[in-house]
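Problem 12. The chain below contains 220 residues. Write out its predicted structure in token notation.
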Amino acid sequence: MPGNLVVLSGGLDSTVCMALAEQEASAPPLALTFDYSQRQHTELDRSAGVAGHYGSEHLVVHLDAGGWGGSALTDPSIEVPSGGSTDGIPATYVPARNSIFLSVALGVAEARDLDAVWIGVNAVDFSGYPDCRPEFIEAFRQVAATGQRRGVEGRPVQIRTPLIDATKSEIVRLGVATGAPLHLTWSCYRGGDHPCGDCDACLLRRRGFTEAGIADPAPA
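Solution.
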């Protein structure tokens, strides 16, 4: 059975990825979380809870992206948009975030001799980020094949994206079917003690549970 690493944010999609990766392997997946100076740290607590639920080792990578600017998630001077997605790439896009996440994840996976990196990118019900698209993932598969020792030896680290073509409601149903701890997850971009209910992430999550006909088990 392959060894797995999951890029775990503590959100709905990455938690469902944890459930799927756990079912596939004989050992709990390694959970890799990034503290990149995001606006709120609740998701870091939630990712620790999800990792603990699965008995996984939890690695946290600290990255000071707060001084970069360019994103409402790392720069408090940029407001998180309300009312859902608009045309174009939203202010919550973090430049190079998934490029960095996947680069580190591939390195950790190769160092631990793990066979697959799982990441919960989604190209259906998402905010329009360019680094959630299939073309981006295919480019990184080429990176793994050509830029790592495992790749040139003919056994590249796989990049698994089981949710990339799923709607949010399908992800919710899959989470319930796999027993994922959805009650531990967090989706809000703004942070605080409770989800704002008005940012793009909150609205997408609400729509997903509503269309799935399932009550959101996470605290409001």
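Discussion. The first helix runs from residue 12 to 24. Students who got a different answer should revisit the alignment rule from Section 12.3.
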